[in-house]
Amino acid sequence: MKKLVTLAALLLLSACSGQQTQATNQAAAPVNVQSLAGNHVVTDTIPAAEMATYPKKGSAISRNFAAQPPLIPHKADYSINRDRNSCMSCHSWDKAERMKATPVAKSHVIDAQGTLNGQNYFCTQCHVPQADNKTALVGNSYKM
Ligand code: HEC
Ligand code: HEC
Q: Does the UniProt entry include the keyword Electron transport (predicted)?
């Protein structure tokens, strides 16, 4: 008998919750989401995006606010892995001058020899490349 009551209660509960979800579904307004690809149908052939081009070699991009990690004015697909940080082959304190690159900031090192702080190892965690031929995907009205 006890089992039967429990079963009946369970059935009633599931029936109720079922009705509830239906009611919520009916009330929900349609959501209009605009994808980044615009109004293209999935089967459309969309022309490939332009390849990124970067500012003339050797020029830094001006910063927009104090303490901004400067934008990378060149391609940034150099490998950064456990054994090797390719960015450091130009930006380390001992190589920067020869490579005509700015040495990593003082805030990135732990001694006078320019040993990189482990917390600054993954450069692209903070620095992003800035191509100059790309149209913005989203608007930006940021002001200082
Ligand atoms: C082949 C050498 C080379 C490599 C490798 C390289 N860079 Fe550069 N980088 C440069 C040069 C040259 C400049 C332009 C001069 C400057 O502003 O430092 C520059 C500029 C920058 C700047 C702008 C500095 C500023 O003051 O505005 C950042 C940030 C930067 N690089 C980050 C990186 C990161 C992150 C990597 C790895 C993904 C990397 N670089 C790999 C040569 C290199
Ligand atoms: C945790 C975020 C962070 C990481 C990781 C990081 N940076 Fe930076 N970087 C900054 C910020 C913020 C600045 C500007 C303020 C300053 O100079 O400390 C900066 C400044 C720089 C500058 C300009 C220095 C100058 O004197 O103008 C260079 C070059 C640079 N970083 C290269 C690198 C490279 C290469 C790596 C990887 C080895 C790296 N950064 C990792 C945040 C970061």
A: yes
